[in-house]
Write a structure and sequence with these properties.
There is one protein chain. The chain is built from five helices and no strands. It has 134 residues and is an all-alpha fold. Helix 1 (3-29) runs antiparallel to helix 2, helix 2 crosses helix 3 (66-72) and helix 2 (34-62) runs antiparallel to helix 4. The relative contact order is 0.17.
């Protein structure tokens, strides 16, 4: 496995740790606090770094332009779906923090776990296919 792929996996795993910590702390607290949004935000940054690393690496390896790499590489598509899911969770957490009602918080609690499970599926799919790039 190349060092570049390993770096991508490390950043994605850091995203997993921080995102999971945020989700389970939020569930334990039964409230959304700024620390949860911060954990989600840092996890999102690591997720984006991981996708960027692997996209550039795949482009350099194949010689294809980045748009072609993105649309033709299943691993990158899976990782981008994960970025979108985590982005939704970050934005939603911030919205609930700013002006959330009890009903919005209740809905957020239910769906944040679903979003995390979907993101986790993308993590494992990306891990499985990403190691093939190295």
């Amino acid at each position: 496995m190349s060092k570049v792929v390993l770096a991508s996996i490390i950043f994605m795993s850091l995203a997993l740790l921080l995102y999971s910590a945020g989700v389970f702390l939020e569930r334990k607290d039964k409230e959304v606090w700024p620390r949860h949004a911060v954990l989600y935000g840092i996890a999102l940054a690591f997720d984006i770094i991981s996708v960027t690393i692997i996209t550039v690496y795949a482009g350099l390896k194949t010689g294809d332009p980045i748009p072609t790499v993105i649309t033709s590489n299943v691993n990158i598509i899976e990782e981008l779906v994960g970025v979108v899911l985590l982005s939704v969770n970050v934005i939603w957490a911030i919205a609930v923090l700013r002006e959330g009602t009890d009903k919005q918080l209740e809905i957020y609690h239910k769906f944040s776990l679903i979003i995390w499970v979907l993101w986790l599926a993308m993590y494992f799919l990306g891990l499985r296919t990403g190691t093939n790039l190295g």
